[in-house]
């Protein structure tokens, strides 16, 4: 049963990104790359989403928001960190106001590096995340 | 035969006892006793009537003493109105009172009238009696507890609750008299009594607003009274008889037009609607009893009596137009109201408009629908008024916005309100079925304007009820729990009304077969099955499903395991669903409001134009009628 | 006997056909936008996924109200397919919609509350037209009953073209198509997040979607009702008309931008008055 991966809906959240990665994420949904051919919809609503796609490093203000949005997503769910800032904090890593990558707040499943990440690699990351959904579902069953 | 005088005397004697008794506890028992006796008497009357073959009774040909008594009271009422209008510097109102009283007295003394009966007991009159005694009685029970809470919450108002309660019962006595009279002069007497009582009850709080509104109600009702008096005069001149059935069979359009004017003012149709929403300043029992369940129904009752004579003539067309027009405009204006009682007032006017439109068309089907609408409206509207009043006593406000999440705060009241609202507009409850029949009848009678009125009117009706229901059902836990100040007798009254409402919906086919069809038969001499039995049973099944489906779903979904999370507020929910963190990093209260669309549907925008339209239609009609009568 | 078969077929197949049509819709929409688009079976994958998700909720009554919404839509549609009263069915349809509004209001959250208000506005906009359409059928064929409407000698469409135009308009509202997708949209991302469905997740959302499929089949059945009459071949015309109307809705969806509520109300009521009112008037006069 691998139908779960045929309909992953995603939620895109900008933690503190410079908008570079955001533009690339939006580019994925445009006709040239067309994320929807994989059944992926950018829902913008944690209650509907399976994939949380975060751009930018997490700072003091966005940490609570990221946690809350994550808590509002129903299981199984995966987190994709897009761009080097989301992966590790990037050039802002040592800034006084930055916690670091997304994994300092919530568990991250897929890291998509790049500054900004290219649409091809974003799609690749999302599809890898999709594979994880099924596994997570099974894990939840075993528990 | 002794039951008819008993029916009017019981509430009247009860009223005197209530007025004299200053002990509030004993007064409560007197009220319960009176209500029980009144209901018993009413049902005995109905039982006796059915046992004797359910034929119309025509009673009391000789009533010299009572006639004299009525004349004395009429003069007394006139003097009272004159006194009041001079006291409050509204002197011109006294002219209305004097002219009509003098006119009727002159008619009674100078024009010889054919000897005839004064009272008719038939199915329509008895239905009105049952409505008045059951709904009125329950409101009487409710008002015992309500008035106590009311004066606890409104310290500034002088406690005259014995006067208030006594007036309610005098009103019931007058209402029984009104519906049982077949003689116009008697009917006119009771008509005036109800107008004056309405005036007194609206002015109960004695604030400036209350006094202004009470005089507004008074002059509009007196204007209708003048129509009534003129109708009596014309009728007496023409055929030396003032019997209702003679007018219906005679078909003189001028007389019927005048009586229609009286009916329209009493049932607060445009352009006379303003008095009814002014009347909402009065304590809730009077709004429930007079201004939605019974007194305004007197106007409708008169029009239904006249309905066979309205078919296909100018009067009927105008009455139907005014009714339909009132239905659509007031249901739009109701959208812009956030005061629950105002919404109920507008909805009352608009439903009355629908009934008036049905009566104006004047065929079997529409009258069938009109009677149904009347029954359902009385029950569910009185229930709604009572629950709004009780809510106001508990949470200190009757603003719909403040009823946010009432289902968790005051669950019992919220359920009662919910049943009332569902009964008012949801398929397949009674009101909607009647609306459906009305729509069909309007189509059959080829009146495209009314069809469009009803189509747009039901859309706006749906809007204002749904948003109210949405407010009630919001699952939002308050920080401070509300204290339910509703007393036992109030709950008793509301609970019984709720049960009656549901039973009426379930027993719809029986109601149609045994109550409404005979009434239509007695009015028209013929009846047809407006809805076939299979359609009626389908409806009952639908009602059951509306009641069953959610409760079944409740049982099924209760089992489903669920993890609760906070609602979505862009991730800045503080966690209790009522606060969020703003851009300054501080916690802020969330406030959710309904749409009121005041600029589009507000009273300020719609009331004046619609009054002008309705008034000009009325004026033109009377000009034509007068021209016809003279020429 | 036939009516029982059609009722059972409706109750069993409507979600599947509805979902299939939805898949086609998404494919055509994607092609109109120059994209490849998802598989035609995408709605089935979506439903499967939604049912396998964790059940999270913001309150205890939303699921119950959503289930009631589904059941009432099934009842409303069932009434049409069973051949009973169309006016009653349309009334039940609005009752069903009211349950959805209540489900959204019960969240007491900002986005679904706005969605609920807008849904009410949509209801107020299309309600007059639905009533007039039922009245139109009654005038054109002499009956509110579906089985009598389809037994006529000629198609009702010829008597009520104005109402048909109006019906296409309100169908756009009911199918949540742009420019009237105010309360919630099938397209990703909008200004009120997901409007009324914001707080519905997993199975709760799936139930609502299935309800929408029932509704879609009911709406298309009414389109067919305009064309079907006594002749057997008229059924083919009816089905073709459904597909054509469905395509027109998709086209409208893709070529128009969302309007605000005031425009929605103005457009709908004006067209109702012009197309519907005049059509009904003419039917009454002839």
Automatic annotation (TrEMBL), chain A:
Phosphoprotein is among the record's keywords: no
Family annotation (SUPFAM superfamilies): HydA/Nqo6-like
Keyword field: 4Fe-4S, Iron, Iron-sulfur, Metal-binding
Domain named NADH:ubiquinone oxidoreductase-like 20kDa subunit: residues: 18-128
GO terms, molecular function: 4 iron, 4 sulfur cluster binding; metal ion binding
Cofactor dependency: [4Fe-4S] cluster
Family statement: Belongs to the complex I 20 kDa subunit family.
PANTHER family (UniProt xref): FORMATE HYDROGENLYASE SUBUNIT 7-RELATED (PTHR42989:SF1), HYDROGENASE-4 COMPONENT I (PTHR42989)
Protein name: Hydrogenase-3 component G
Organism expressing this protein natively: Faecalicoccus pleomorphus
Organism placement in taxonomy: Bacteria, Bacillati, Bacillota, Erysipelotrichia, Erysipelotrichales
Gene: hycG
UniProtKB/TrEMBL annotation, chain B:
Coiled-coil ranges from the UniProt annotation: none
Record carries keyword Transmembrane helix: yes
Keyword Transferase part of the UniProt annotation: no
Domain of life (superkingdom): Bacteria
InterPro entries documented for this protein: CPA3_Na-H_Antiporter_A, ND/Mrp_TM, Proton_antipo_N
Entry's localization field: Endomembrane system; Membrane
NADH-Ubiquinone oxidoreductase (complex I) chain 5 N-terminal domain location: 120-150
Membrane topology per record: Multi-pass membrane protein
Residue stretches making up the NADH:quinone oxidoreductase/Mrp antiporter transmembrane domain: 181-458
Primary location group: membrane
Transmembrane residue ranges: 6-22, 29-51, 63-83, 92-111, 123-144, 164-191, 217-235, 247-265, 285-304, 311-334, 354-376, 413-436, 448-470, 491-516, 536-556, 612-630
Keyword annotations from UniProtKB, A to Z: Membrane, Transmembrane, Transmembrane helix
One cellular-component annotation, GO: endomembrane system
Entry's family note: Belongs to the CPA3 antiporters (TC 2.A.63) subunit A family.
Protein name in UniProt: Multiple resistance and pH homeostasis protein A
Gene from which the chain derives: mrpA
From TrEMBL, chain C:
Principal EC category: oxidoreductase
Topology term for the membrane: Multi-pass membrane protein
Keywords, in A-Z order: Membrane, Oxidoreductase, Transmembrane, Transmembrane helix
EC numbers for this chain: 1.-.-.-
InterPro entries xrefs: ComplexI_Subunit1, NADH_UbQ_OxRdtase_su1/FPO
Pfam families the UniProt entry points to: NADHdh
Protein name: Hydrogenase-4 component C
Protein's organism: Faecalicoccus pleomorphus
Name of the gene encoding the protein in the UniProt record: hyfC
